[in-house]
Amino acid sequence: MGYSGARGGLDAILAAESLVRGARNTDPAPWLTTEQITGRMRLAVDRVMGEGSLYDENTAADALRQAEGDVIEATHLVRAHQSTLPRLAVSEPIDPDEMVVLRRIVPAHRTPDGPQLLGRTSDYTGRMLDRDAQPEPVIVPEGPSAETERAQDQRHPRRFSDMLREMDLLVDNRPADPMAPKPEPFDISRHPARPPAPRSAILASMARAETGSLIGTWYRSIRGTEGNIHEVTLGEVRHGRLPLRVTHPHTGKPVLLGHIRASECEAIEDLDGPDEDRSRFDVGYGLCFGHNERKAIAMANLDIACRRFGDTDGLEQVLLLTTDGLDSCGFLEHLKLPHYVTFRSMIDRKRAVRGVESVAERTADPIGRTC
């Protein structure tokens, strides 16, 4: 759960909490409903769900409202709430190929198999502040047309990496025995991950890492500050809906519970190391809750960088131990708590050092020797 504020100065703490409650009751602005937050601030809601490790839009929206828009504080609230919930079942493994694509871009190919679906995005609009924006009326067609049905068929396009694999341009990372039992994914919510860790632990840590921290780590890696410069091309970025299934306790068959939205990315790496197959590419992978393409892209690039250079530049340790927003921000914010006892001890040590130096100066002879 990271660092939490210790109790101290109870009267001051109670007064601060009353100010927060008073501001909520006296603020002239209308109280934001949960539906307004999920509808109008969907990207912030998705980020809180991912970093809070709990897929529930309403809970994330309520946390954002209580935190007054502070994503890290909202994440802390969601993570704390999540720790109180019972674990009723473990979902079946999700096949990403079942994703109903809402958005799909393939930067590495002009005409890939399947369409380029820009979806709901502001990537291609000018960054101009519009203070008087009014919602435009939405015209809903009365019935499904042939164009609509054709578009539905394009919601499951073939992966760009599959085309590269057919061309024998990808490193084969598949297990030698496809029928061999696969290891259970590392559960970072129950056990702390420490290096050396399996790939599932690193991917899970990145999936709930603080988005800004993960992007900063990726940017440092891609700039080659550790000497490991590597060239990255995005193979494919997707955002869509994935089915969520659990095994029925009586029948033993998978049951569909619903769908979750997720962002997915495959990053293509140009292999050029002395011990690497320079005739092929390798692929990094990223998947996270909601519509958070920045995190998915950073994940995919850091996944391949960690496998290539993680042992040499400490990248694995950085990803496992320093990208969690609650840990890093909690450590930062604990500096605001009372530290007068430890600081007074530091002052006493400084004065003691000065006292020793002063005695040494008074007892030194003209040529610098002490008596």
Report what the structure shows.
The chain is α+β, with helices and mostly antiparallel strands. The protein has 13 helices and four strands. Strands 1-2-3-4 form a four-stranded antiparallel sheet. It is globular.
Topology readout:
Elements: H1 10-26, H2 34-40, H3 42-52, H4 57-66, H5 71-82, E1 100-105, H6 146-153, H7 160-166, H8 199-207, H9 211-222, E2 232-247, E3 254-270, E4 281-289, H10 293-313, H11 315-321, H12 325-333, H13 340-363
What fraction strand?
5-15%
Q: How many strands, what sense, and barrel or not for the largest sheet?
A: 4 strands, antiparallel
Distance between the termini: 58 Å
What is the string of helix and strand elements?
A: HHHHHEHHHHEEEHHHH
CA radius of gyration: 27 Å
State the secondary-structure class: alpha+beta
Mean pLDDT: 85
Sheet with the most strands: spatial strand order: 1-2-3-4
Write down the overall geometry: globular
In oligomeric terms, what are we looking at? Answer: single chain
Number of helices: 13
